Amino acid sequence: MDLSALLPSIVLGIVEGLTEFLPISSTGHLIIAGDLLNYTGDQAKTFEVCIQLGAILAVCWLYRRRLLKVITGLTTDRTAQNFVINLIVGILPSAVFGLLLYEVIKSHLFNPVVVALAMVVGGGIIFLVERRDRHPRITDVDQMQWTDALKVGLAQVFSMVPGTSRSGATIIGGLLFGLSRRTATEFSFFLAIPTMFLATGYDIYKSWHILAHTDLVFFGVGFITAFFSALVAIKMLIRYVANHDFKIFAWYRVVVGSLFLLYFMR
């Protein structure tokens, strides 16, 4: 397989890694980029889901000490137990709705126009949330209760619409429910781990019949580029939210979503 054949894999891997944890919709960018690269269809949809594993493993790597502490303290540490309970509760809404709506979403919502509309609407919601006077009651992930995790998990359900953004839905949901920016962002990272592992595993199970051995190199290159670009994006976002709000992402969503809407509806 020559380099030109791998170009879509490299480009889409970079796009996935840079956008997965920003509130701008990685799936939306992948659908639009895939359309521009003429890489579409069922295999493209499965590829887009599979390379998310690379981005998720970047979170696991960056937070490996925290995750190892949780695992080793699971039987004795109440904080570790509460952390795991929150993750389980947080993924339940998406797991239930994902199983019920999988075919509908894959068949009818994975198109550039839906993505562009969702980007614009999501940008408007971020603007509205950032206009509110905020006095966060939770400033650390370990302060969260299962009810807080459930609320964020319910917000994550909206991200099933491509272009909405999983990280955007969970971060903005967290802000609405009293989490600080850093806490909402970090819980979004942690919640992504079980959510995306389950989503990717289910998608591969459903799409296994359309994959071939020749796809392994193409998928592997996308996976690796997504991993390394996600490492960069996560570090940048954590530094950014320490001193900034999310309005820049709202502007980005509205402007880029509007441009794509004009392009794909021409």
UniProtKB/TrEMBL annotation:
Molecular function GO labels: undecaprenyl-diphosphatase activity
Transmembrane segments: 46-63, 83-102, 108-129, 217-238, 250-265
One cellular component (GO) term of this entry: plasma membrane
UniProt cross-references to Pfam families, sorted A to Z: BacA
Keyword annotations of the record: Antibiotic resistance, Cell membrane, Cell shape, Cell wall biogenesis/degradation, Hydrolase, Membrane, Peptidoglycan synthesis, Transmembrane, Transmembrane helix
One of the GO BP terms on file: cell wall organization
InterPro entries listed in its UniProt record: UppP
Mode of membrane association: Multi-pass membrane protein
E.C. numbers: 3.6.1.27
Parts forming coiled coils: none
Localisation: Cell membrane
Note: Bacitracin is thought to be involved in the inhibition of peptidoglycan synthesis by sequestering undecaprenyl diphosphate, thereby reducing the pool of lipid carrier available.
PANTHER family found in the cross-reference section: UNDECAPRENYL-DIPHOSPHATASE
Family note: Belongs to the UppP family.
Function: Catalyzes the dephosphorylation of undecaprenyl diphosphate (UPP). Confers resistance to bacitracin.
Protein name: Undecaprenyl-diphosphatase
Organism: Desulfobulbus oligotrophicus
